Amino acid sequence: MSELERQLIGGELRGSQAPIFTQQFFTCTPTTKGQSVGYIHVNLPKGILSYPTTPAPSWETSEVNGYLLDASNKVFPASCFSVGSETDYAILSRQWVNDLSVVDISGPCWFIVHTRMSATFDTLPNVDIAGHPSDLANAFPNGCYGEWIPNLPSSGTLSANQKIKSAFAKLIRTGGTWYSGATNFEPVANNWTDGIQAGEVQLYFYSSDSYFTEPETNLPLSELGNVIATADFHPLQGNRLSGSLLRMVLKDSQDGNQMRLLPMLQYAKTYQNKLWRMCKPRHGLVDLNAPSYGLSALKTLVSIIEKNGLYYAQFNGSELKHNGTDWGDDQVIPVISGEDVKVDLNGNTVKAFCHHSIFPLGIAHNG
Asked: How far separated are the first and last CA of the chain, in Å rounded?
């Protein structure tokens, strides 16, 4: 188990992730909006979606399959876009927004629809797309390879959608003409300080390590390990692990002081050898420093489970958020299947999860 924990902290497990293709940029005024258990739905005119995405069972996923730019220029990640019998829908998971009133559909809104391509990579070739959706729709009427950076044009920074492993190039489009441009990249913050002007479209080309975990069912344990807690930006301090489990890039830099191995203090198992949720598995105190950059961190219990005669790593944990004084952590490992949200001791809504490694660790038995 200690060797597995070392590999996880160093981001050494092989991953598999498909690149994003942005299929559609379109604008319309939504007809209505509503809230159901687990998500907000924005109803669109029937037939406006050319490329519906994720089906209904995945509406509560934390995967981002596009964006909504509302009538007040607020950006919301969309879990999926779906076609109904009488209307089309944009679905916003409660992991991203849980207050219906903040979504303004009083006027025209913009929608950006993603899909995953069929090929998968361990090292992912990425294109991040910057610009106002109206300019992107003009530049790419048939869609384009890459993912929109959810920022409107300004002189500020542009955060990369994935943790940059190596950067390649930048292209700029102004007035219908494309040309190459220099980039100013900040590795700790994982962003570009170039800014973007109104009317411009920018493409950033770079590579990143793929995710090596995916949401899964909580299974019986073969071996129980420690809790890994990290807020660190460095690839050797758990940053690839946090990116895979939280689907976000952590950005704190304090000379390796933002990663911990914490012991389990209390837990029990069911008769099926699963973690017993009612026992509230408890771990040691998360004593990470107050973050110097960003607000989020990761905590995850590492275990080994058996599936179809093979061993996999299982991860039970949650996001941590700092409120200026503490992490608001209850020292409890959430025991769920797939992904959900929980409320921490400071009242923040944070992501909770159960993931498995995508690829097996080894053979459990031949029978």
From this structure: 24
Counting Cα atoms < 13 Å in the Cβ hemisphere of 179 gives 7
Element (H, E) at 133: helix 133-139
- 99: how many CB neighbours lie within 10 A of its CB? 9
Model confidence pLDDT, tens digit, residues 177-217: 999 988 889 999 999 998 898 999 999 999 999 999 999 99
Is residue 194 a contact partner of residue 224, using CB atoms and an 8 Å limit? no
Name 52's bridge partners: none
Query: Locate tokens 């299974």: which residue?
Result: 219
Nearest by Cα to 243 from 114, 156, 117, 126: 126
Rounded to whole angstroms, what are the CA distances from 362 to 81, 278, 305, 357, 359?
38, 31, 11, 12, 9
Q: Is 244 helix (H, G, I), strand (E, B) or coil?
A: helix
Task: Tell me if 190 sits within 8 A of 116, measured CB to CB.
Answer: no
Total-model pTM: 0.91
Q: Which of 297, 283, 318, 211 is nearest to 254 (CA)?
A: 297
Count CA within 13 A, CB hemisphere, residue 226: 19
Element (H, E) at 7: helix 2-9
Report whether 49 contacts 81 (CB < 8 A): yes
Q: Coil, strand or helix: which one is 316?
A: strand
Phi, psi of 13 (to 5 degrees): -70, 145
- The pLDDT tens digits of the residues spanning 18-72 come to 999 999 999 999 999 998 877 888 999 998 887 666 544 455 556 788 999 999 9
User: Interior CA angle at 23 toward 213 and 172, to 5°?
Assistant: 95
Q: Using an 8 Å Cβ cutoff, are 344 and 328 in contact?
A: yes
CA 275 – CA 300 distance, rounded (Å): 14
